[in-house]
Amino acid sequence: MPKPTSKLLAAGLAAAVALPAFPAFADELNLYSSRHYDTDERLYSDFEEMTGITINRIEGNADELIARMEAEGDNSPADVFLTVDTVRLARAKDLGLLQSVESDVLERRIPAYLQDDDNQWFGFSQRSRILFYDKTDVENPPQTYQDLASDDYEDMVCIRSATNVYTQNIVAALVAHLGQEPVADWAEAVVGNFARSPQGGDTDQLRGIASGECDIAMSNTYYYARIVRKGDDQISSEQLENIGWVFPNQNDIGAHMNISGGGVAANAPNRDNAVRFLEYLASDQAQEYFSAGNDEYPAVPGVGLAPSVASLGIFRPDTIELSEIADNVETATRILNEAGWE
Ligand code: FE
After folding, report:
1. CB 188 within 8 Å of CB 339
2. Distance, CA 17 to ligand 1 centroid (Å)?
């Protein structure tokens, strides 16, 4: 009776495949991360203690990690890819480096607009990209992103370069909301209002206000909140007092948000551990670390804010689907280049 035998054999094989082939690796998680914040240590060590899963961290900048995963291909040991900004998550997805995840926990905890359409990535923390200004120089600060194009702010605006993902992200959001043509005109006018050629990181934009080089600057909230919490050697407490901020577009689209997020790698050897780790990142405890440790806004509604973050005040966030922003990044980058935005 060859048929039943082969059936049994097939069933036996299936069972064998379902068992962990290499028990030694069963309690590991290979985390490819471009988050580089000291306070993330707690995130990882608490997960290890809770689950007994050892996290092997491979850290680098996002582009390097993406290139590495591409080069490793099917044999990549990556289980989870964690990074900052929708642009990079979308790029990883487009390159086939991530896989869809079905998780009730993630579906329930992470708001839909912070999830990829195909559940290939999820946002775990948020930051708002807002406007800061010198209170001693600017009587009527811009109230919207569109206002940055106004003649009132000639030679006043400091902002990051066109190659920076934060810049690409917000311009992509504006394209999604306003359309290509208005944003192209806007970008050209904003370039005309630059106080200096785009340079440095977000903290450098805030330092530019302190030094007097910039009157208006764009930065993510967490850089400012970090200075409030820890100080900065180039910004005195008096200079910090003179920096005001505006959450833009409170009467219409809301203040632009970008995220830190992650997904499960396409060929994750420890897939279950990877999903468990993402679910952990959505837990109250991990969400509080994001806020307390790195001055970010939790992705999960109702989780308490760190004092440095709460001090910025309540605001209306832009809740556009991040997938929609991702779809417009290419257009945004072209617009920036055509506007001569360095
Ligand atoms: Fe950043």
Report:
1. yes
2. 42
